[in-house]
Amino acid sequence: MPKKEQMKGPSWSFCCCSQCLLLSAVVNIGKNLLKWRHESDLRSQEFTEESTYGARSTHCALASKKCTVIGGSGFLGQHMVERLLERGYSVNVFDIRQGFENERVQFHIGDLCSKTDLLPALQGVNIVFHCASPAPFSNNKELFYRVNYTGTRTVIQACKEAGVQKLVLTSSASVVFEGKDIKDGTEDLPYAHNPIDYYTETKILQEKEVLGSNDPANNFMTVAIRPHGIFGPRDPQLVPIMVETAKSGKMKIMIGNGKNLVDFTYVENVVHGHILAAEYLQKDSPLCGKAYHITNDEPIPFWTFISRVLVGLNYDAPKYKIPYLLAYYLALFVSFLVLVVSPLITIKPTFTPMRVALAGTYHYYSCERAKKDMGYKPVVSLDKAIEKTVQSYPQLRRASQ
Ligand SMILES: NC(=O)C1=CN([C@@H]2O[C@H](COP(=O)(O)OP(=O)(O)OC[C@H]3O[C@@H](n4cnc5c(N)ncnc54)[C@H](OP(=O)(O)O)[C@@H]3O)[C@@H](O)[C@H]2O)C=CC1
Ligand SMILES: CC(C)CCC[C@@H](C)[C@H]1CC[C@H]2C3=C(CC[C@]12C)[C@@]1(C)CCC(=O)C[C@@H]1CC3
């Protein structure tokens, strides 16, 4: 709407004859209209330029910018919160712990499995981002089932009850991965019949629940984002595990021939994909009830990525190679031994069949659907992402010898 002063009546000039008055009024109205049109063009131009989120986001961005990030204290969640605040959203965080301090964020501490805990965090909120999960390497099956599956059902119920309109789930590209090569996999691939671990099994159940609950007729729309191999500053997992493995001297051998391409996705690109999805998710949009791969769109040989990060942190790149199948059966054998001795001692092996599969096979995914339906394009290239990540871990850098 034009501002008040632009709406004010025409200003009268010195001659008072009726023709002149009429002419002057018409001229002034014309001028004001032109001025308003120009300013409104500028405003929309400003929005489009400032926004990488496309024209269709205008409605959402102006109408409602209140959201809750479930899992907002975690690695991805914190990056989500930072970007959402920059984009002018008002942000609630719901998490089992408070991971950081920020006076602009309203924290709600609770367990997502409890609707009573959730409901206060969802009042007056239009969009919910659900990116909470137990850590993927946990062995606690019951916890995965409770949080990822039944907990997500509770999130859906609570969203509906609180009148939330959009639910954006952080799923995982691994929901279609069975430990066998996937090259440029699309979202049409079926869910894994034999998921690589229990974490993935419950991510499948979770995604099905969220997409199945999409109900635009009742003003409840859902979408699932499937990232893969998220990395970036403050990640407590990927880079620290790599460095830990290198420090213990176990990072000397490459699994397979070193050529297998994999997606590693910079956290800011993952965040960008989530926000785009939220802003493009409208009643009539193709996003409703669908899953979207979000990657860096630059698959890289697994061992090249590992080597670049390690060398960047002053560790040696792995040099030797072991055939993939040999490594896989060795890891199976190790798991068997660990199981046998488990009543006596608890061992957590680094070398697991799941990690061998992740390290030795091709698994990269097409993000064409996200490009087409929401204009997705990575905002940070892989080179820049690796550079930024390496720089962000000075404490993990090996001192020069
Ligand atoms: N990291 C990756 O490479 C990939 C991750 N994903 C998905 O992305 C999402 C975010 O992952 P990431 O940021 O790495 O994970 P984090 O573990 O860093 O963040 C998850 C957050 O959720 C919290 N949380 C766990 N259980 C509950 C609960 N019952 N109620 C409330 N909060 C809870 C965690 O608390 P606490 O730390 O105390 O457990 C943590 O703060 C997850 O859904 C994951 O499955 C998908 C693909 C790849
Ligand atoms: C010890 C080395 C041989 C491997 C070190 C790197 C790994 C820690 C990571 C390489 C691929 C990553 C990955 C995940 C976790 C960390 C890696 C195994 C996920 C399992 C995280 C959760 C998901 O949803 C899927 C990810 C696939 C890739």
Automatic annotation (TrEMBL):
The chain crosses the membrane at residues 326-345. Residues 69-319 form the 3-beta hydroxysteroid dehydrogenase/isomerase domain. The keyword Heme does not apply. The keyword Manganese does not apply. Keywords: Membrane, Oxidoreductase, Transmembrane, Transmembrane helix. SUPFAM superfamilies: NAD(P)-binding Rossmann-fold domains. It comes from the Eukaryota. InterPro entries: 3Beta_OHSteriod_DH/Estase, Lipid_A_modif_metabolic_enz, NAD(P)-bd_dom_sf. Belongs to the 3-beta-HSD family. This is 3-beta hydroxysteroid dehydrogenase/isomerase domain-containing protein.
